[in-house]
TrEMBL record:
The gene is glyS. GO terms for molecular function: arginine-tRNA ligase activity; ATP binding; glycine-tRNA ligase activity. It comes from Oceanimonas pelagia. Keywords: Aminoacyl-tRNA synthetase, ATP-binding, Cytoplasm, Ligase, Nucleotide-binding, Protein biosynthesis. It is an enzyme of class 6 (ligase). This is Glycine--tRNA ligase beta subunit. It holds the Pfam family DALR_1. PROSITE patterns: AA_TRNA_LIGASE_II_GLYAB. The keyword Flavoprotein does not apply. It comes from the Bacteria. One of its GO terms (cellular component) is cytosol.
Length: 689
């Protein structure tokens, strides 16, 4: 079958830079799904995206769907003809629907009888006929949170659409999508190259757009050019660029023809904490800061312009003029803030609301202080330092610097605490209290910081759950999921032997009468255990392994972690499947029994050799594994329990559990109960698949 390359491009106003990649990828994915659904064969599909366009190119696209034969079964022969052999109305109606007479129908014999059948030849539709509707469907399914209208048009899209091009090879496909007719018109760069040109063939899109339009439509190529250019520019000034990937993606989405330039700012601004300067350069101006080999900020920045100027120095000077007032603001705020100590700002927090029902940020700071002291005592950290850090933890929120540059909270608290002469552990805790901020972020580096971070997260969790405002769906205004996962990571990865229920109860007590939800402790615990499920799934652990541990509801996160790893290792043992099945069988037997089961096995009532052997093994392991369970050495304990496989198999093969004699039956149930309880000291392995 003949093949052609297909191109679709929509030309728009500037698209949202942070959404550009997802829009381009989704456009290609949606169109691919449409092609697959229509059974149109192709070789590959590729997306392109630039500030004012989205495009998809499909290579070696079949010019038509393959012809098909479809078997359409009719009524049974017995029901298709009456006693005189004449076609019934059902048979005639079915035949008319297929465009044939009953006499033209074939017969299909099966084990269940004979049926009328018609094999229809369906000719495949041409790709040119199908593609416009497919493109429209692909665009309609883009992840657009809020569509807009423009002019007097009723159509909606993420931004106004000006051009539409659908080319199958050199053939222009007629279509009207989003209120725009398909044409060969491709718009070039706003200020360079040809403003518009006519594209003659789908294969010439990238080449013609680059040469004539001065636009690099390939997102990945633009990104690579920018990354390499920024690295080279930094090397020229003897530094290393801060190539934050989010910023790199955003800058790539802002330019059609990237040109990398280097500029400077006054060295005097380096007296301001680097974090504030970097926040201004990256967040506000989309510049790449430059550091020396020791990690010290240099008075240089690299930026990407969207035009090739004959006099680049003019662009450099312009950007230096733009950034200077922002850096001057940061310098002014920094100098002004240092005239007042952090501690003296505590009273100002009484005017800042944390949550209407839960009080002010000052009250939160006092609770964090008390809870941090409690946690510090439990993990062997300095209580006084944790208490002091907790009290000062939110004071930088009312500084000029943080008010203007919100992302510097915590960091500025650290700098101001050092200026005030606070202990270094306190200063570091002010910065590290928010860690981990996101998946993969580093944890607090010291125990005092960890105590404050845990106190902050638990205070928020208990408070918000305490007034009945648990997250619903994707709405989580207080970032409780992130807080819960962050707290779990700190406890697990730092190996703290902390119990969630104890921490939750302590946080609950500090709120006093403000808590209205009587089930807050159970709700918070359940929520945090739920975060374990998603966390360990992301780490690659099986759902059944996680469920087996969750069934025991261990409340010490480090203990939970040890159990998951132990069960995961046990699951790979040869004996695991048989023992999991046996545990399930035992659980079902015990669940069906009504009445009290003896706590101990009476050795004198053991009759069969198999039950004597198993009872001896269970008694021995109960004693031998006690210290392993106490130490949390679950891996070794499960490895030892794996030795029970032969004894358990023999027991179920040779012993009738539900014996007629009541005392014998109860004794055997007691043995099974002891066996199951040994495994339950780790997890419910009956849930393993």
């Amino acid at each position: 079958m003949a093949e052609q390359n297909f191109l679709v491009e929509i030309g728009t106003e500037e698209l949202p830079p942070k959404a550009l990649r997802s829009l381009g990828q989704a456009f290609a994915d949606n169109l691919q799904n449409e092609l697959n659904s229509a059974d149109l064969a192709f070789d590959s599909i590729r997306w392109f995206a630039a500030p004012r366009r989205l495009a998809v190119q499909v290579t070696h696209l079949a010019e038509a769907q393959p012809d098909k034969q479809i078997e359409k079964r009719g009524p049974a022969v017995q029901a298709a003809f009456d006693a005189d052999g004449n076609p019934t109305k059902a048979a005639e109606g079915w035949a008319r629907g297929n465009g044939i007479s009953v006499e033209q129908a074939g017969r299909l014999k099966t084990d269940k009888g004979e049926w009328l059948v018609h094999v229809a030849d369906i000719k495949g539709k041409a790709a040119a006929e199908l593609l416009p509707a497919m493109v429209e469907q692909a665009l309609n399914r883009l992840p657009i949170p809020k569509a807009m209208r423009w002019g007097d048009k009723a159509t909606q899209f993420i931004r106004p659409v000006h051009t539409l091009t659908l080319l199958l090879g050199e053939q222009l496909l007629p279509a009207t999508i989003l209120g725009v007719d398909s044409a060969r018109t491709i718009r070039g760069h706003r200020f360079m190259g040809e403003r518009e040109f006519q594209l003659d063939h789908a294969d010439h899109y990238l080449e013609q757009l680059e040469k004539r339009g001065r636009v690099l439509a390939d997102f990945e190529r633009r990104k690579a050019i920018i990354e390499a250019g920024v690295k080279d520019a930094a090397a020229v000034v003897g530094g290393i660029a801060d190539l934050d990937d989010d910023l790199l993606e955003e800058v790539t989405s802002l330019v059609e023809w990237p040109v990398v330039l280097t500029a400077s700012f006054e060295e005097a601004f380096l007296k301001v904490p680097a974090e504030a300067l970097v926040y201004t350069m990256k967040g506000d101006q989309k510049y790449f800061p430059v550091y020396d080999t020791d990690g010290k900020l240099l008075p240089k920045f690299i930026f990407v312009t969207n035009i090739e100027s004959k006099d680049p120095s003019q662009i450099v000077q312009g950007n230096e003029k733009v950034v200077r007032p922002r850096l001057a603001d940061a310098e002014f705020f920094f100098n002004t803030d240092r005239k007042t100590t952090l501690a003296s700002r505590l009273e100002q927090l009484d005017n800042v609301l944390f949550q209407q029902q839960l009080g002010t940020v000052k009250e939160k700071s006092e609770r964090i202080s008390a809870l941090a002291s409690y946690v510090a005592a439990a993990i062997g950290a300095d209580q006084a330092l944790a208490e002091r850090a907790g009290l000062l933890s939110k004071c930088d929120l009312v500084t000029n610097m943080v008010f203007e540059f919100t992302d510097t909270q915590g960091v500025m608290g650290m700098h101001y605490a050092r200026h005030d002469g606070e202990p270094e552990a306190v200063a570091l805790a002010l910065k590290e209290q928010y860690q981990p901020r996101f998946a993969g972020d580093s944890l607090p580096g010291q125990d005092v910081s960890a105590a404050v971070a845990l106190a902050d997260k638990l205070d928020t969790l208990v408070g918000i759950f305490g007034i009945g405002q648990a997250p619903k769906g994707d709405k989580d205004p207080f970032a409780l999921r992130r807080a819960a996962l962050g707290a779990l990571r700190i406890i697990v990865e730092k190996g703290y032997r902390l119990d969630l229920l104890m921490l939750i109860d302590q946080a609950r007590a500090l709120y006093g009468h403000k808590i209205s939800n009587d089930n807050v402790a159970e709700d918070v615990l359940e929520f945090m255990l739920g975060r374990f499920r998603s966390w360990y799934q992301d780490l690659g652990y099986g759902v059944d392994v996680i469920q087996a541990v969750l069934a025991r509801r261990p409340t010490r996160p480090a203990d939970f972690d040890a159990r998951v790893k132990a069960v995961s290792a046990f699951r790979e043992l040869e004996a695991a499947a048989a023992l999991a099945a046996a545990n399930k069988r035992v659980g079902n037997i015990l669940a069906k029994f009504e009445g009290d089961i003896p706590a101990e096995v009476n050795a004198s009532l053991l009759q069969d050799e198999a039950e004597k052997v198993l009872a001896g093994q269970v008694a021995e392991l109960t004693e031998r594994l006690a210290p392993l369970f106490a130490d949390g050495d679950y891996s070794k304990a499960l490895a030892e329990l794996a030795s029970l496989r032969e004894g358990v198999d023999a027991f179920f093969d040779q012993v009738m559990v539900m014996a007629e004699d009541d005392t014998i039956r109860l004794n055997r149930l007691a043995l099974l109960n002891q066996l199951r309880n040994l495994f339950l000291r780790v997890a419910d392995i009956s849930l393993l698949q």
